[in-house]
Amino acid sequence: MALFSLRRDTATHEGPSPEVEAFLQGYSIEVMPRTAEKVESFRAILPKGTRVYIAHIDGTPIADMVATAKRLAGEGFDVMPHFPARIIPDRATLADWVARYRGEAGVKQGLLLGGGVNTPAGDYNSSMQLLESGLFGDFERLHVAGHPEGNKDIDKDGGDAIVLQALKWKQAFSENTDAKMAVATQFCFEAAPVIAWADRLAAEGISLPIHIGVAGPAKLQTLIKFAIACGVGASLRVLQKRAMDVTKLLLPYEPTEFVAELAAHKAKNPNFGIEQVHFFPLGGITTNATWVTNNGGTAGVPAAQQG
User: Fold this and answer.
1) For residue 255, which phi and psi values (nearest 5 degrees)?
2) Full-prediction pTM beyond 0.85?
3) What percent of the chain has pLDDT over 70?
4) Domains of the chain, with CATH numbers?
């Protein structure tokens, strides 16, 4: 089966696939303060109640993060800011961030992750330390990071032993907290490795729901750049192979086939661990939201049209 859509999807003409429509229900999406500023109205492009993650890149002022969270909450969306352990210098800073998000924007959800910097800024090195801090006790939902293709920053031998051990720790933590927990993953481009990874977690006793990362529509060159920077592994070869085909090089990537394959698998296996889709809008937030609107049926109807 082809891994890429080479044209605009026909869902707008033939109607969405029921499997894809069901799979995209309740999808989430990621923004940064600087990208959010370019969106005039999130209600005009995102469904009511969409969970919007706010990525915290090292160097972003906390004031900008909180302002973005406040704006999104004001438009009626569930806000989930990132808490990257390695850019947080100490407990006082973490406590200040949590207090500001809670007090100024009513935030009750967070993505706790190690963070993409090599050298920790201070006391924290992992999401497990953040969970142990006790500062998220009144949060209703806590997500942690997942890596279907491994994470060489953690498992330097290319395996997954350390990552798997950490997920087992987080599974145990989830059984002793009132917060709902899930694994939000890095984006991938091939369904088969994702399915195998999710099945392996289940076999290892890890039942945390998976919110699978999906790269939104983007230029191929943009996608390859982000994939390399984010350490996407095995499925990067799919992009590289496409880049070698001059007939496809200038065509935009769309996640149509990837989503369809996962949706079909979920429909046939209702207990499959993937619970939701999480989009990385690498080609733009509006472009990504429009793709879901065109391909997701009721899953993509913007809030402004829902009343």
Assistant:
1) -85, 25
2) yes
3) 82
4) 11-294 (3.20.20.220)
